[in-house]
Amino acid sequence: MNLESFFSQPNIIDLSFFNFRNAITAAFFANTDLKVLRTNENFLSFFPILGNVENLHFLDILGQLGVTPEEIENFETKLKQDRHVLIPEIFVTQNGEKRVFSLLATYTEDPNFSYLNGIQGQFVDRTKEYELSVERDRLIDERIKDQEKIVEKSTRLEELATRLAKYLSPQIYQSIFSNENNGANNLTRKNLTIFFSDIVGFTEISDGMEPEKLAFVINTYLSEMSKIALEYGGTIDKFIGDAILVFFGDPESDGEAEDALKCANMALRMRERVAELQDLWVEKGISKPIQVRMGINTGYCTVGNFGSEQRLEYTILGSPVNLTARLQSATKPDTILISETSYTLLKNHGEFEKASSITPKGFSRPVDTYKLINVKGRRSTNGVLMTRTGEFVKVSILNGENITGAIQELKRIQEEFQHQNDFPDSQAP
Questions:
Q1: At a CB cut-off of 8 Å and minimum separation 6, what does 398 contact?
Q2: 164 within domain boundaries
């Protein structure tokens, strides 16, 4: 006789289901045909819209809970194949409230009690967990959006700063963005070496010139002169038409004598570069030669922010600035005229020619002046004119003595090109 014949089937089922009576999950037991035989009290509290579900087919119950036909079919298939199945999320809306459950079901087997063979399952309320997950995802999305906004604003600020940098000398730009120069009253007195230059007769040269040619000439000239000024550590104060104002000794200084020496080297290189560019300008249809006058002076100036609340300009003021402009206007084309104060700092470092004394407009006494010829130890490119545009270099050798110098210069340019190829812009150190 079979053991199960001594026991009541309903009592055994109730006994086996005892552990689920006080469970926090909604538990059920169904036979192998998925007919529900038992549910615990939580089942009704979880799903009051269902009412009493005993003797109902479990797949129909899932349909009443809003489970999609595809999920129901998958549930039945997986249960038969794997003997257990998990539906991670079942969304149920009851009385306008959205809740989320997971469902785990598995086959049960007992060799002594065949009527315990069936399907046991549990619904787990995961509403709070789901809400926390949604809130977490929302916060992550907001954080990502905030980061995207920060990146976007940072990019815009970088673009703005890049554009702004073109309007300021790098030294001034650096001091502003490092908060070293943040006040309208940040004014100091410094002994500066000042450089002023302009193109001789530029008004006549540009008169009647096509706008494109005019822009090419002035932009090429100012770009090349700016590169040289920055190369020698000069602070570019401003462009006034074709005129350039550069000073040495602020924001950084290597000492008065060294500042003056850097300015002298810069002026000589600028003069050479103008000569090198002549052929390029002629090729662009500029018939009249471009000649430049330059003046250099050293003296105490007031340097800092000047202007209004709406617009400030970091510049220098004082009579030394005016004298520099007067020296430039008083000299001859392709000549660098320096004052007595600059000459005192430079006389042991270069070659000079005494010029006539002048009484500049606005000054009561004559000023001794000197022509700057060269600086000791400086390699001049006179006799070898090199015009470089991008990767193209044009060499003009005016006499045979300069062939060696030209070859050396070409080797230097070749090494520079090779270095650029080895380190593209995106990877350059």
A1: 383, 384, 385
A2: no
Range of the domain at 311: 185-380
Give helix then strand counts, H and E, for the chain.
12, 15
Residue 251, preceding bond cis, omega within 30 degrees?
Answer: yes
Instruction: Kindly report, residue by residue over 147-177, the tens digit of the pLDDT.
Output: 988 888 888 888 877 776 666 666 666 666 6
- Strands 292-307, 335-339: pairing kind: parallel
Structure tokens at 325: 């402009």
Give all strands (DSSP E) within 308-366, no chain letters: 312-317, 335-339, 350-358
The total number of structural domains in the chain stands at 3
In whole angstroms, give the CA distance from residue 194 to residue 200.
19
pLDDT for residue 44: 86
Tell me the one-letter amino acid at 292.
V
Residue 400 pLDDT level (bands cut at 50, 70, 90)? very low
pLDDT of residue 140: 92
* CA distance between the termini of the chain: 91
Question: Is the Cβ–Cβ distance between 328 and 337 less than 8 Å?
Answer: yes
Domain assignment present for residue 138? The answer is no
Cα 160 to the chain's mean position, in Å? 10
CA distances from 24 to 7, 51, 61, 130, 356 (A): 29, 18, 20, 17, 107
